[in-house]
Amino acid sequence: YKVEVTASDGLNPSPQLLEVEVSDINESPYFVDSNFTLDEDSSWSVLDVADPEGQPVDYRYEPPQIGNLTKIGNELIYVPYANKSGPDFFVMYLTDGTFDENGTAFPPGSLEANGTISLNVLEKNDPPVAKPDTYFLVNDQVSYRFDVDLNDTSGPDNPESFVISITRNPVYGSATIAGGDIVYLPPSPYF
Predict the structure, then answer these.
(1) Among residues 50, 113, 41, 103, which one has the least CA distance to residue 78?
(2) Which residues contact 26 (CB under 8 A, 6 or more apart)?
(3) Which pLDDT tens digit goes with each residue over 102-157?
(4) What b-and-e string marks burial along 132-144, b requiring 16 or more CB atoms within 10 Å of the CB?
(5) Does residue 191 have a pLDDT over 60?
(6) Can you tell me the distance from the alpha carbon of 71 to that of 99, in angstroms, rounded to the nearest whole number?
(7) How far apart are CA 115 and CA 111, in angstroms?
(8) How far apart are alpha carbons 20 and 18 in whole angstroms?
(9) Can you name the residues that pair with 59 across neighbouring β-strands?
(10) What is the SS3 string spanning the chain?
(11) Which of 49, 58, 185, 190 has its CA 20 to 30 Å from the CA of residue 165?
(12) On the CB side of 53, how many CA atoms lie within 13 Å of its CA?
């Protein structure tokens, strides 16, 4: 930039040309976003960084607590461990140079930045896991009561109560639900 300034003693002006050179300085890369929310059992690209001069940004990181990070091309993908939810975080280091195998930025003079990436992994309602039940009827009883959810689980999320329904009636006899159990009434005289 050129600026003309004038100095004067009140009677005699003395113009001077002042030249100012503005240099673009190298600035550190930065995080565009460092807070992410995702569902359990899903994945999310967590690399949202930039460099003021548009230079490529290299990065390294410390591992998160309840998930894994995988570099795929120019993306860093976070995947929580199966059925894990809650808060997670990891520390990320950026440079407008490159990191060597020891984590040192190269070339000398490369600018660095670091920050904590925060993740909120939302729990999802997993379906219950129903396992087959087999019962052997040896006596000629009027009815049989079976607790069919003893070997079932509510899924990996928080404990939940079961709702049992009969989706197919037995070929012989009838079945009803009573207090969370299946009550089977064999046909007479089936035995």
Answers:
(1) 41
(2) 53, 96, 109, 111
(3) 888 888 888 999 999 999 999 888 777 788 888 888 767 788 888 887 777 776 66
(4) eeeeeeeeeeeeb
(5) no
(6) 15
(7) 14
(8) 7
(9) 94
(10) CEEEEEEECCCCEEEEEEECCCCCCCCCCEECCCEEEEECCCCEECCCEECCCCCCCEEEECCCCCEEEEEECCEEEEEECCCCCEEEEEEEEEECCEECCCCCEECCCCCEEEEEEEEEEECCCCCCECCCCCCCCCCCCCCEEECCCCCCECCCCCCCCCCCCCCCCCCCCEEEEECCEEEEECCCCCC
(11) 190
(12) 14
Whole-model pTM: value is 0.65
Structure tokens at 157: 């999320």
Residue position matching structure tokens 């005699």: 12
